[in-house]
Amino acid sequence: MSFSKPNRSAATLTTTRVTPAPGSGICVTCVDGCEGPCEIGRSALKGREVIYPLPFGKITAGSEKDYPVDFSHFNIQGTAVGAVGIEADSDKATFPAVDTTTTVGADNSIKLKFPVFTGAVGSTDIARINWDEVAIGAAISGVLVVVGENVCGMDPNAEFSNGKIAKSPEMERRVDSYRKWYDGHGGIIIQANVEDTKLGVPEYVIEKLGVEIFELKWGQGAKDIGGEVKLPSIERALQLKERGYIVLPDPTNPAVQKAFKSGGITEFERHSRLGMVDEDNFYKSVEKLRSVGAKYVTLKTGAYRPADLARAIKYASNAKIDLLTIDGAGGGTGMSPWRMMNEWGIPTVQLECLTYRMCQRLASKGAYIPPIAIAGGLSLEDHLFKAIALGAPYVKAICLGRAILTAAMVGKTHGKLMAEKMELEGEDVEEGYIRLFAVGSELKERFGKDFSKLPAGAIGLYSYIDRLKQGLQQFMAGARKFALKYIDRNDIVALTKDSAEISGIPYVMDSDAEEVDKILTAS
Question: Is 0.85 surpassed by the pTM of this model?
Fold first, then answer.
């Protein structure tokens, strides 16, 4: 049985002529004369361009590998007895009474209205184009939004002084659009990689823009190399090469310039460098961020091998990091090598189970355990409950990358269609939004005249999170847990022996065995 689908995918706009062999993904009969719609065939013409999902800048992409264990291999336990966190009274213990707020930060001072936050909305076109929708939607929902890596370095209008960023209109736009709607819940996190650090982005956003939460980035679940984007022009490629990025093919090479002019090369790739984690340097980086004014310092790591996960947890513990986000394989991205997205790294369930074991070991010694967030292929309320339960009591929030962007983009698309319809009919667009969105009237009442300033995508994101909230409240009420802090590992059950072995969660046929025995043997 193959878990993968090599050589053909909607992500790379490739297919096969006939049913492929399960291992290689090549058609069982590869015919001379075929135009080659598969990845091999397209690579014969366009080479390295076929490594990445298409069309760049208009999509997000998620792994399609069917991992042997995922969150569907667990079910949520319900009970008919009692209530935790509220009086066991049917008139009081109703699902709308469930508290879904959470806190992060070493001192628990970052308050979230709901336990989710955005993935890193970085320097890809799709991130830049949809920033206002995501940022404002996150602000009015009371959750965190993350500005991803390379935003200053990619800003075509950025100004530099002695090799350091002096002004970035794009970064300023991103910070300002969130702050206009920020109400004290959530916050904006700025992320940095190797190039960002070299360009002085941390100092710029903390000292000049007043950003309080800064994130060091080791990696993400979709890839174990630096960030990438595609560049449509040789002028842009030359600009970013001059700023210190790796640009392929080399835009300064005359042969490459000629190939681009003739159409043999249609685009360039901008790559970030690999980060090199060193314990002492990590602590120095954290202290430097705090010394220049960062109120909170967070860390994002990817689906690396278990020893690297141990490093992340241990170093974060020693440095008293305010949030550690752990991103498993199986998630998505704006741009990553497609085969890498599917074939490297530890999947989210296994990564979270390893995280739990490591946190338990440190906690048993009295060590500080930072608030932990889990990411990687999560999108709905059952995912949230299971991920919080599987890592309880250490997991405080869930990072939703593609899901949040999807909600924002769909809201934007339908908002545009509704606006066009209302304008054509001579009616008020604001009234159209109230008709279109289930939360429209609620937001109109909340924001009054400012409702008209909300992007449709932001309303769509708010609506999605509102749905997640009620869905999670219903699951929690069924488990009789009336606040997030009461969710524990006993609230889920493993449906297979494999998932039970990996997680330590009881197999369904063994669950509650001792209590069952007491009930049945009682006189």
Answer: yes
Q: Which helix (H) or strand (E) holds 325?
A: strand 323-327
Furthest CA-CA distance within the chain: 90
Per-residue DSSP letters for 245-285?
Answer: -EEES-TT-HHHHHHHHHTS---EEEEPPPP---HHHHHHH
Contacts of 132 (CB under 8 A, 6+ apart): 177, 455, 457, 458
Beta bridge partners of 231: 268
Element (H, E) at 415: helix 402-424
DSSP string, 213-245: EEEEE--BTTBSS--EEEES-HHHHHHHHHTT-
Return the closest-CA partner of residue 444 out of 235, 63, 222, 140.
Answer: 140
Q: Are 223 and 329 in contact (CB under 8 A)?
A: no
Query: What is the distance between the alpha carbons of residues 227 and 260, in angstroms, rounded to a whole number?
Result: 23
User: How does pLDDT run across 208-230, given as a tens digit for each residue?
Assistant: 999 999 999 999 999 999 888 99
CA–CA separation, 453 vs 375, rounded Å? 31
Amino acid at 34: C
- Pair 192, 215: CB distance under 8 Å: yes
Rounded distance between C-alpha atoms, residue 471 and residue 140, angstroms: 19
Long-range contacts from 499-502, C-beta under 8 angstroms, 24+ separation: 499/69, 499/73, 499/74, 499/349, 502/69, 502/349, 502/350, 502/353
Average pLDDT over residues 277-294: 97
Residue 388 contacts residue 114 (beta carbons within 8 Å): no
Sheet holding 246-248, edge to edge: 228-231, 268-271, 246-248
